[in-house]
Amino acid sequence: MDYSRVYNKRNLIFLPAIAALIIALIPTLKYQWPLGWDIIYHIQYAQVYAHNGFTTITPLLNAPTGQKIGYPPLFHFLIAAIGTGLGVDFFQVARFLQPVLAASIVLSVSYVAYKFYGNISGLGAGFLMLSSMLMGRMILTLPENLALVFLPLAVYFYYHSLKEKDFKIAILGGILLLLVMATHQAATLCLVLAIVSITIMELVVYRNFKALGNFLSFFLILIVLGILGVIGLLVVAPQVVGSLWQQGITAITGMSTSLTFNRPLGIYSYLGNLGIMVLVFATIGGVFALKRHQQKDNVILAWIIAMILLSNAYWFGINVITYRVLIYLLIPLSLLGGYGIHITCQKLKNYPRFSSKKVRTTILIAICALSMVSSVLTVTDPDISVFSVKNEFGNVQIAPPSDAEVDLASWFNENGNKSRSLVISNQFTGMFLTSKAQMPMNYGFEFYSIKTYPNMTLETVKDDGVGYLVYDKRLVVPDEDSWLRVMSINSEFFPLYYFSQNITTHFDQIKPDYATKVYENQDFIVCRVDY
Question: Of 53, 62, 202, 255, which is the most buried if we count CB atoms within 10 A?
Answer without folding.
Answer: 202
